[in-house]
Amino acid sequence: MSFEDMLFALGQMKIATQGLTPSSKLGKDVGMDSLELVDLQCILEKMYGLDIPSRVFEEDLCLGNVVEQVNAQLNGSTKSQAPLAKR
Question: Which positions fall inside the Carrier domain (predicted)?
Fold first, then answer.
């Protein structure tokens, strides 16, 4: 998964993506509420055929964290089980 894939998923949700970076926080910077976080989780799970843990979609995490966690799952890494660093 690339950052551009993340922006595509957000665009599917009609969320403005201009100016977003991998360090943009889901809640504060992107402006997502809890329902939108669940929607993003569902979109990414469908895109990649994964069961992504809800903890990956906390409001104070960065977009880059989500990309890293999805990639870890896609690569079969146990890294996805590690605690997420909040940037």
Answer: 13-68
The C-alpha atoms of residue 61 and residue 46 are separated, in whole angstroms, by 21
* Domain coverage including residue 22: 3-80
Number of domains in the chain: 1
CA angle 35-38-14, nearest 5°? 70
CB 32 within 8 A of CB 59: yes
User: In the predicted model, what is the mean pLDDT of the chain?
Assistant: 88
Q: What is the pTM of this model?
A: 0.82
Please indicate, yes or no, if residue 87 is contained in any of the structural domains.
no
As a residue count, the chain comes to 87
Distance between CA 31 and CA 29 in Å, rounded? 6
Asked if residues 62 and 26 have their Cβ atoms less than 8 Å apart, the reply is yes
